[in-house]
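Morning F.,

Quick status update on the modeling queue. The single chain you submitted on Monday has been processed. Sequence for confirmation:
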Amino acid sequence: MEIRRTTPADVEAIAEIHWAARTSPDNDLPTFIHSRESVSWFVEVVMMETCSIWLAETDGRPIGYLALEDPDWLAHLYLLPEATGAGVGSALLSLAKRELPHGMQLWTFQSNIRARRFYARHGFVEVERTDGVDADGEPTNEERAPDVRMVWADG
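Structure tokens below.
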């Protein structure tokens, strides 16, 4: 497996990984509310401008990606469903820890038990839960689904 920084030529590969992970019948995520085309737009217009993104590949085939956003956010970590359990996520998360050695935080859905366990195994702790809206009644995610903020602090 190789992990490399992305280029604009990787937009569709990132979008495909994101789409496949979010629409897999085997995930524990809320129903995905976006079209495949809007995912490509989001990757190209938003993520490529606001995130540092790395792509994991096996034999030249994209299988996962990591997106970090300043100052300390793990914005996205998605794998193709068939790539889970092979160490790809752990390798991407190790890279994130090298890039953000003083700590990072992320949001994940409460229903995403596998992700929560994965992050906990890697030293993340739950620090906040919402029911999908904050104290002011504003959504904390587009799906308005219960979520959890997790934090990793080195040391």
